[in-house]
Amino acid sequence: MNQYVISSLIAFVLVGMGLTAFILGVINYRSTGRTLVGAFMWNVCWCVFFWNFGYAWMSLCYDSDVAYFARAIALLAVTVYMMYIIRYVAEITDYSRRKEQIFLLGFTIASLIAWTQIIQKKAVTFVTTPWGYWYRSDMSWARMVQFASILAALCQYYVILRYGWKKATKERERYVLKKYCLFGPILFTGYILDTLVPSIFHTAAIPGSCISAFISAMVLFQISTNHKMFGLTKEHVSEYVFRDVRVPVLIADSEGKIVMCNDITYENLGVTHQELEENGLDILFDGRQDDIVSIKNKEMVCNLEQTDVKDEFGDLMYSIYFLHDITQERKNLREAKASQRMAENANKAKSDFLANMSHEIRTPINAVLGMDELIIRECEDEKILGYAGNIKDAGTLLLSLINDILDFSKIENGKMDIVPATYDTPSLIHDLYVMSYDRARKKNLDLEFEIDSNIPAEMYGDDVRLRQIIMNLLTNAIKYTREGQVSFALSLKGKHDGMVKLRVSVKDTGIGIRQEDIDKMFSAFQRVDEDINRNIEGTGLGLSITMSLLKLMNTELKLESIYGEGSEFYFDLEQKIINEAPIGDMSEIIRSSEMTRKKYKESFHAPEAKILVVDDNEMNLQIVKALLKQTGIQITTALSGQASIELVKTNTYDVIFMDYMMPEMDGIETVKRIRKLSHNESANATIIALTANAIHGAREMFLGNGFDDFMSKPVKGEKLEEILIQYLPKELVMKSDSSNDVEIDATVLENHEKPKKSLKQFLQTTLKINMQDGLKYCMEDQDLYEEIVGLYASNNEVEALNTLYSEKNWKEYTVKIHAVKSNSKNIGANDLFELALALEMAAREENVEYIDNNHDSFMKEYQTLIDEIGDVIR
Fold first, then answer.
1. Beta strand pairing status for 655-659 and 686-691?
2. Do the Cβ atoms of 502 and 491 come closer than 8 Å?
3. Which of 91, 513, 697, 760 is close enough to 561 for a disulfide, judged by CB 3.0 to 4.6 Å?
4. CA torsion, points 236, 242, 246, 250, in degrees to nearest 10?
5. What's the CA gap between 289 and 217, in Å, rounded?
6. DSSP assignment of 496-552, as one string?
7. To the nearest 10°, the Cα dihedral for 340, 345, 346, 347?
8. Is the pTM here over 0.85, yes or no?
9. Could you report the per-residue pLDDT of 473-526, keeping only the tens digit for each?
10. Residue 448: half-sphere exposure toward Cβ, Cα within 13 Å
């Protein structure tokens, strides 16, 4: 191989290195978003290009004049190269710009002086060498200045790196700075070959500096590319996202073949790249439902998200699949659903409990208040009437407590509804005064009503709940006021667009409330000053219920109070105006409403009217008959649903009262059968549900199953007469004249043989019955009590219960044992009551083991008591 070929190859390599550096510099500059640091790197790269190009041209020309010019270009590139190296490293380490400029100025001056001397023709001698046309030089002072400036530049380079090392806070930053330290030794090694070596040994220069310049520049380029020292780029971000994102990412081509995926795909899903390429996504999935997939051989569920990438013509290029692990989320969701089901079951159990307790509690209250009403109507003795009044007050309080608990349950379940209707404003005010006056009078409190005379006479809203809200406030004010007065004010705040804004206020001179206790006032079951107020009756739910009801009416309760002086509760309420006529002066109406005990007077007579009352509890039937006897209504009773069906086939009734919870056939099933009868003499009768089940949804349930109306127990005489006036044919009803008593031939209680006197002695001595408890349910009426005991013995359910037990008919067994339980409680057979209660609960839960172990012993006790009573009364 001749000399020219070798020199050509060397020149070709040098130019190739220069071009490579130049191209990479351009790419780097564009990929870094044309940043300043990217520009410095580009300048370094084109300096390498001219450095290498100059020496390559020089090695090929074999002409001293041309070689001189080519070498001058290369040496100028060397000087600029070092300047940009300094600027580059200063920029990435955030070095002091002022210090950098001072050093560059000194380096530039020294380099230019050295350059002007070195490029002189007498400084070097060009010679032909095996590797081309190169130079040989002596160690002149210019060469020494050049060498010193390059060495000073390298020292400055390391000073700047040292600054960056001290400033670095992350291990990654220090790791990168260590790599930058390679630049100096690489450049200096090559630089010696064509500076010191020719000068010291008087030999031809070797092109080491341009090679080392290329290598050192590539070191900087590689570090900057791998460690992202030049800012963010789309390519860098994409690489990081694809590599480091913590979800499996798979990329498929337009044919559906997997061509790429990140490392976590293999780690998490347990597959290899080859398996994915050969089988596609199907190898991963054990099952798929929409976007949810199960991973094979793993207890893992993922959400599959697909993104299609299309070209500018709309053709699919590839699809990207993201697999998001939702195993824990699905587990949490299942647990949440299980918890929700448990909560719903618990809520249903609570509702069922409230329904049952409503029935259980209201049934004896019905008896107590019903009998008490009869005493008030028929008794002339003022002392006894006083006792009866106290019983009525206590029973009414007990009912209000039950209603509070039921209302609170409705609010908790979100089932409390506001039902607006047209109402008469004076009637509302009159009712509030009537209901609160007696309470205030008993505590010697002044009750003041201040009513704005311009309030509209008729409005549209839920007057039932409005009465409840205001009565809660009035009742609380009276309860917590020992002396002074309670004031109720209803004022007009304004009118607009057919609406009226009212201010409702209740003020008292009671004990007041401390500021720190105000929040407790509106919490359920909370009371303030328990030591002072411990004897005041109530559940502590009144204000909480009031707050919730007002929220449903889009308003809120406000409170102002001074401890020891009194309180004022007030709220603003908007109602729709129906009749804009003002109510006028209400003072006369209020004065005429002052409560005095009045003798009962039936509100109507209807001797031609016929009603049917269906209830499996005969005591309830007697109460209804007694409450209505002065109206003259013809009353027929039935103890079962089947008996009522037979009666309507041959008798015409105007109204039918139907109990819900009865054995064999409950009230709903009975009504459905009555409605379907082909021959029904009472097809036009109004059927009213009569039940102690007063929880939320009861009315809707009954109306949706064929009933025409709903009436909850305990039955009140006034409510009973009111509903009969509403549904009896108008031509059969004669309204009573309050000034004249009308003599009527009333239906009396059904005749039962009067128990012998020895029954009283038996009841006083037997341990199976607590006569005092039984008398309480009969208002201490001995004759009525003995009659009910006789009915208890004659209504023997032993055979029916045994039949239901043998048939395993737990639904009817529950109903029947429930009736026996209630009747046992009514006569004071407390032990039997407890046994029956336990069997009823077991039957509801179908706890067959408990029933099997206790049914026979209960039947024996029950039969023995019936036999003992029967022996006495026969």
1. parallel
2. yes
3. 513
4. 170
5. 55
6. ETTEEEEEEEEEE-S----GGGHHHHTSTT--S-HHHHTTS-S-S-HHHHHHHHHHH
7. 90
8. no
9. 998 889 888 889 999 999 999 998 899 999 999 999 988 888 777 766 665 444
10. 12
